[in-house]
Amino acid sequence: MKKEFNILTMLISGPKSPGKCLNVFMRPLIDELKVLWETGFPTWDRYGGEYFMMKAAVMWTISDFPGLGMLGGIQTKGYTACPICLDDTDAKFSHGRMSYMEARRWLNMNHEFRVQGRNFNGKEEFLLGLCARQTLVGHTAARQNENVWIT
């Protein structure tokens, strides 16, 4: 296997997965991306016939739910498992499993499940699909990221 693909082989889920310490394996990639973003890399533009400084950034990642928790440093299990609602998630532990009570808020306002309270938690659902904390801005976002562990 080529050296540049070694990092991908280490990101396998299962009993030998890196767990919460995913940043150890991502650090070389993050360091290279920082250089590409800050200083760039001289790249030949064939059409223009000149060099330019190419810069790069990660726009998004695609991962499964446990991978999202490891990569993003957010809780994806338990009472605050919703990556959108975070602390505003309405969850209850019942019959040996977690139940997320207000999941119907994401349905259309005229969906029949919104008024079928007896089939869910005994209440009709009138909340819109937005959590109480719609967006994190400024010092609120910074305060939430204080506990993110970065190697």
From TrEMBL:
InterPro entries: Transposase_21. This is Uncharacterized protein. It comes from Centaurea solstitialis.
